[in-house]
Amino acid sequence: MSDKILPVILCGGTGTRLWPVSREGMAKQLLPILGDQTLLQMTLARVAGNGFGAPMVIGAHAVRFTIRDQVEAVAPEARVVIEPERRDTLAAVLLAAAIAAVDDPDQVLAVMPSDHLIRDASALSEAVHTAAGSVRKSGIALVGVTPTGPSTGLGYIKPGAAAKDGTSPVERFVEKPDEARAEKLIAEGCLWNAGMFCFRAGWLIEAVRAVEPDTVEHVTQAVAGMIEDLGMWVPGKSFGKARAISFDHGFMEKTREARVAPGRFRWSDVGDWDAVWTESDKDAVGNAIRGDGFAFEAKDNLIHSEGRLVCAVGVEGLAIIETPDAIMVAPREKAQDVKGLVGALKGADRAEAVEHIRNHRPWGWYQTMDLGERFRVKRIVVKPGAKLSLQKHHHRAEHWVVVRGTAEVTVDAKVSILHENESVYIPIGSVHRLANPGKIPVEIIEVQTGSYLEEDDIERIEDEFGRT
């Protein structure tokens, strides 16, 4: 049995309550919501050293390259595991246990979300080690957080009498009570369920087998068929047969071997814009401003701007969120209702509900700047050393202008190096590629002209990312 705890970071959530910044296409854990690093990177930093081993990150296929790049930037020793499809948290946790058990069934894992905020890493480490110490033989131990107020958006844990090891048996779970019930639970000594728990890999597999035998079979088969792909590990297709159910509903509500260790640290699930305001630095009258924002005779507002100047005049307690393609304004006290707004947008078939205007790709990103009849203007940024697929289009021509960095451009049989302020024309049907041979990002403006300008007018001839 390893003395080091294996941190498992779950990175598959969608974070729709932080719309329009967080969307299904790029959720909050992959964004710098509260600092220069993303929430995923901040989570990885908290489990560096202090008795923890190299972490395992379980993430979604759609954003696998973004996850890989962010993990490599702060924890290059980490193992990135990509779910072939979303199957909720029971399958994800079981996947981590099955992978760990291949090497050591007695390995103790500490599972935690990637989108929470904890400022005190040492206090977190102390709580996790207490929980881990209680499961060396059997059982599962959660980390519970002392509530700071009667939250209606969180789950609660009722602990029993404390044991010598610092943990208590879990008497019951209560999911998202109303305010009166939440106040009563706090008075009874209940803790917030922070979604963090420890267990021994082999024990969990057998414990889940008792309640979900088919899911265990599908996940273990998927691990047996796991392959490495572009620096990430991908389980076999049988993973998609696992039951889609949360870990709480699929297992925690059924086990009788749950314990809880108290976490003596400030914690936030960053679950809505009011939580972001609470955790942000503020001016003398309570305004939290990120980006190009200005408050005049206004107080207690959250202003988040990703581009344009956003001004607040004579207002109080608002969340004002600006992105390139959407603006959301709401009272902070109504922040939980943003999830309902996203649902209504989906019902109205608005693409903005789930997709960002900035589209991330394994080589970088692109963003549409203007669109009209028979033309589209894009801003394209390519990471150092990266290249797009070798491709051609059947309905459009393209003009590329380099505005930053050095670009290597292939057009049919000719390869050229373009510097800032230089341009190239790609006729319809020409085989072409854009690459960045330099040490800084290369940025180009692409002007498309033609009868059809959608992304499916791409015939890929060669692609290092395996796309067709």
TrEMBL record:
Listed GO MF terms: mannose-1-phosphate guanylyltransferase (GTP) activity; mannose-6-phosphate isomerase activity
Any Pfam family matching the protein: NTP_transferase
Residue ranges constituting the MannoseP isomerase/GMP-like beta-helix domain according to the UniProt record: 296-345
Boundaries of every Mannose-6-phosphate isomerase type II C-terminal domain copy: 349-463
Enzymatic class: transferase
Matches recorded under NCBIfam families: GMP_PMI
Domain of life: Bacteria
Keywords assigned: GTP-binding, Isomerase, Nucleotide-binding, Nucleotidyltransferase, Transferase
Catalysis: reaction(s): alpha-D-mannose 1-phosphate + GTP + H(+) = GDP-alpha-D-mannose + diphosphate
Family note: Belongs to the mannose-6-phosphate isomerase type 2 family.
Protein name per its UniProtKB record: mannose-1-phosphate guanylyltransferase
Residue ranges annotated for the Nucleotidyl transferase domain, each copy included: 7-283
E.C. designation(s): 2.7.7.13
